Structures are given as structure tokens and as C-alpha cells.
């Protein structure tokens, strides 16, 4: 790398040459990536770029050494943006909010997939369970090449292996064996420390489909051929019916009088015809 001959002496006041790296002692954008800054021609510029003679258009200046504050031309080389991204990843200083490094990602992917392990990893790296799961699923950190997915790195982990599983298979079988009476879902939810919808989802076979007693798995929910059959609810026995009370008939005096007259009239007519 050729050194830019047009740099002012004030630039070199910020450079401390050593046998290997030329340390930039001036301003650095420390919290982000530690590159040296220099004010020239009315704007802040990157020190390790200023020191280069002619940068091909669109190219980045990358460090051979793992020291962003270094401006030694022998430690610098040109690369594309993609090269820069790969370089940053490889050196574990991807600029952003990531809490894990490439090394961490490689380590996390080697671990088994279970809630216990995921919890331990989440605690170790100070991230959420979901972050661990996404790394292991290769949904995030796709650029980190850890080879083909291992057996335990399959897309969806099920049952107890699910990163957020709250229950064990035995517990699910237990829930399915319980009588399904009125109010059972609420009681089971409280007993197993899950939500009522979880109990229903277990009951209707929407989740934990690998935890059924042999040959009892219902058809898949939403698949052509029908919904999972609604389990019958055992209703409590009804009390015996009491005989209906007959309404007391209160005679209407006007009607009674009319009937009386009609009866007398009929009697009279009968005597007349005979
Ligand atoms: Zn260096």
C-alpha cells in the first residue's frame, strides 16, 4: 500500500509507529468500531483511508491486523463491501448490537437442543431463549458457516426438545388421561402451570402430537378429512324432574254465569222436545 504524500504534518502527530502496528492516538469512534478519525478538508475522515494513496472507487480499506486503530499501510488492503463484512465477522467485531460473536455462534450450534441447554446458554451469553433457538435453527447468523446442519439442528424441534417447552412428555400423557369434565381445563392449567389454551391445544391434538397413547392420535387439525373430534364432555347427572304443578283455576264469574245459563237452557230445550 502506497502512503498518501499529501497528508499534513498534523496528521502524523496522531500516529505512533511501532514495529508492527502504527497506532492512531487521535480521535477514535470508540464505541462503534475503534477506527481513527481525522479532520481534513472540512470533514471528518477515516484515518486508515486517508493514509492510502489511491483507493479504487467503491472499495473498502481493510485491516490485515485485528486492530481498527492501526494505520500501518503494510497492514491495510483493499476489499469490497462483502469482503469487509466477511472480515468483520471473522474477527468477531461485527458492528451492531449483537451480543454474541462468531465463535459463540459456532459453540452454540454445537450444543444439544433442549430447553435445559438453551436456558443455560441464554444465561451464559446474556441473550433470550429465542435468540439461542434462532441461532441453532440457522435463522440468524446465516453467514457463519458451521457446515451442514447437525442432526439436532433440524428446523423444528418438537416436544421436550422445543426450546420453550414447559411440559414433559409424561405430563402431557397425564393431561390426556384425565377425565375431561366441566372446569377440568382450568384445574389442569393451574396444576401444570400452563395456560388454559395450552390445555385445550393438548386436548384437541394441536400440539404435542407425539405424546399420545398408542393409536389414539386424532386426525391433524385443519387437514382435509376433518377437525380433531371434540372430546365429549361428561355432564353431571341432572336431578330428577319434579311433576309440573297445575295452575289453579280461578273461575271467571261472568263465564261461570254464562255456562250456568247455557246449561239451564239446554235442560229446558230437552224437556220441550220430548
Ligand atoms: Zn496493524
Question: What's the short story on this structure?
Answer:
The chain is mostly helical and 274 residues long. It has ten helices and six strands; from the N terminus they run αββββαββαααααααα. The strands form three sheets. The protein has a two-stranded antiparallel ribbon.
Distance between the ends: 146 Å
Give the number of domains: 3
Query: Which molecules are bound besides the chains?
Result: zinc ion
What are the low-pLDDT stretches, counting only 5+ consecutive residues below 50?
none
Give the overall shape: elongated
Compute the gyration radius: what is it?
Answer: 41 Å
Portion in helices: 25-40%
The largest sheet, given as strand count, sense and whether it forms a barrel, is: 2 strands, antiparallel
Q: What is the string of helix and strand elements?
A: HEEEEHEEHHHHHHHH
Q: What class, by secondary structure content?
A: mainly alpha
Spatial arrangement of strands, main beta sheet: 1-2
How is the secondary structure organized here?
Layout: H1 9-12, E1 15-17, E2 22-24, E3 37-40, E4 43-46, H2 47-50, E5 60-63, E6 76-79, H3 81-90, H4 102-110, H5 115-125, H6 129-136, H7 169-177, H8 184-192, H9 196-203, H10 253-273
Antiparallel strand pairs: 1-2, 3-4, 5-6
Helix pairs in contact: 5-6, 8-9
The protein binds zinc ion.
Amino acid at each position: 500500500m502506497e502512503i498518501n504524500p499529501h497528508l499534513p504534518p498534523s496528521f502524523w502527530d496522531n500516529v505512533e509507529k511501532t514495529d508492527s502496528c502504527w497506532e492512531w492516538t487521535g480521535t477514535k469512534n470508540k464505541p462503534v468500531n475503534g477506527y481513527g478519525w481525522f479532520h481534513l478538508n472540512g470533514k471528518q475522515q477515516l484515518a486508515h483511508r486517508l493514509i492510502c494513496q489511491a483507493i479504487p472507487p467503491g472499495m473498502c480499506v481493510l485491516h490485515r491486523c485485528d486492530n481498527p486503530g492501526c494505520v500501518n499501510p503494510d497492514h491495510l488492503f483493499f476489499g469490497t463491501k462483502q469482503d469487509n463484512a466477511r472480515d468483520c465477522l471473522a474477527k468477531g467485531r461485527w458492528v451492531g448490537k449483537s451480543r454474541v460473536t462468531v465463535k459463540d455462534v459456532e459453540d452454540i450450534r454445537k450444543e444439544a437442543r433442549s430447553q435445559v441447554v438453551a436456558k443455560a446458554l441464554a444465561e451464559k451469553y446474556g441473550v433470550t431463549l429465542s435468540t439461542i433457538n434462532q441461532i441453532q435453527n440457522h435463522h440468524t447468523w446465516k453467514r457463519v458457516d458451521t457446515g451442514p446442519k447437525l442432526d439436532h439442528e433440524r428446523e423444528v424441534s418438537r416436544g421436550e426438545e422445543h426450546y420453550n417447552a414447559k411440559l414433559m412428555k409424561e405430563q402431557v400423557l397425564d393431561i390426556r388421561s384425565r377425565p375431561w369434565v366441566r372446569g377440568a381445563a382450568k384445574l389442569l392449567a393451574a396444576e401444570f402451570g400452563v395456560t388454559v389454551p395450552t390445555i385445550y391445544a393438548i386436548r384437541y391434538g394441536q400440539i404435542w402430537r407425539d405424546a399420545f397413547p398408542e393409536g389414539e392420535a386424532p386426525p391433524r387439525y385443519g387437514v382435509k378429512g376433518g377437525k380433531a373430534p371434540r372430546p365429549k364432555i361428561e355432564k353431571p347427572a341432572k336431578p330428577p324432574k319434579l311433576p309440573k304443578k297445575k295452575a289453579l283455576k280461578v273461575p271467571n264469574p261472568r263465564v261461570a254465569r254464562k255456562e250456568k245459563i247455557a246449561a239451564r237452557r239446554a235442560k229446558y230445550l230437552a224437556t220441550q222436545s220430548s
